[in-house]
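Data availability (excerpt). The following record was deposited with the supplementary files.
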Amino acid sequence: MTKVAVMGSGSWGTAFSVVLADAGNDVTLWARREELCTTINEKRENTDYLPGIELPDTVRATHDAEEALTEAEDVFFVVPAQTFRQNLRDWVDFIPGDALLVSLMKGVELGTLRRMSEVIEDETGADPHRIGVVSGPNLAKEIARREPAASVVACTDEDNVKKLRAMCHSASFRPYSSTDLIGCELGGTYKNIIALAVGMAVGLGFGDNTTASVITRGLAETARLSERLGADPMTLMGLAGLGDLVATCSSPLSRNRTFGEKLGQGLTTEEITSSTRQVAEGVKSCSSLLDLARSVDVYAPIVEAVHSVVEGEMTAADMLTALISKEAKHERD
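Predicted structure:
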């Protein structure tokens, strides 16, 4: 069995541990809190984030990062994007020098505007061929319940992407391979902001025409920025783009859509944030994505509008009015 470490025990980290275990790997799940590790190991359940889901016997939890990482053949990172760099600095001395390093995160770092794969390269000095990404329509609870799902695994090295694909291919999880890290990462990051906008529309009481319009124009915006930064636009038509976008914008299980609904209902960002332990990555990443788009002179009206609502500069109703009232253009402009 391949020994793998999953660094992060939230909903998605725990769910992906199930995927990896089902695919035949020996999984060590790192959690920040010792009491959560005890619960997982004794009850075979992450009661904080995925209650009711029984974890395989080949998943074991530890709060000791050195223990989790030592001798790991592959390492999967799944912590909040904006705290990832500091966490990685704490872990880097324990990461094996030949391990495949894989990001399960969806965000762009504030300030540096670096994608998560770039943060891994910055802090570990790893050859880019050893760095991978997993992205797609992967709502954690459904994955953990082993409902059929597919995703994209990306790495610039063909041999490593095949290894990664085999490592997480199980009876209920089908991975497709890609070498386009940029497209996969930006698709996964951007869809969170679009889901916030869709949630606002739902929270305001609008229907399917409105949400379909936001989703479609959001995909165009995503592709525009991704292509400018070197991605293959076809990546955005696949699981890491359209697939992830549809799942996140359509499902009540989506933290970003749910957060957006509450904004649409009139709650503030601070009120919503204080009421949950779950992180809605889009709230943090809308600022960095807006800065990234501006840095390469890409028109990003949805991200700009969502950022204004998140910052309390306009209401959700004003945001949708502002988007609709913009100058009419050719659809491809």
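Summary of structural features: Residues 262 and 271 are 9 Å apart (CA to CA).
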